[in-house]
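Hey, I was hoping to borrow your eyes for a little while. No rush at all, and the record is pasted right below:
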Amino acid sequence: MTEMNPTTPASSPLDTLKALVLRNIDALDHLGHELAGGDAEVPESVLEYLDALRQQQYSAIAEHLPVGRDEHLGDLRHLPPATRVYDDGSPVVEAFRSGMAIAMFYPRYDGDRKVFTDRHMAAASSLAAIMAADSAPAMISDLDEWRRAGNYVDAPLDDEAEKGAEALIQRSNALGPGATVGDLFKAQQEAAERENDGDDA
């Protein structure tokens, strides 16, 4: 038995590849962050395997579009803007931000936009409460995407949450192009340690 499940509008093979690669990179970054930041000791071989899977995603796109290499690591890492645009010019993915909460919406795959944004706003409220309590780091997959103007749906937060969000934005900007969520998490940890050292002084 065979089955076809075309998107609306229909996607070209390259359209489908772009969406798949971006979603895979997002998922692998999140998984790597969870494993590296958890309490359990994760074998280095597992993290290396995740890195290899991530590189395969960049390599797949590099068969069709020019992908830049990290000047220090030599890895394929910098996706061109065309990766995030379908053949018809519509966005492959949109980032919705509310304070510290980032959600990636894939218009051809994630269903009704209002249902998605309502769910995101509920999650943003929960994250704002957590952040106000313990400065929890944001979970974002692509800092370059975050910096692109016009891709956000903003919602008002309380003063404490807004201060934390602004600090996170400044920290991500300081990391430079090509930074990953892991880089941001490390910067968050270092900032928290400096703040704790100051309190103990």
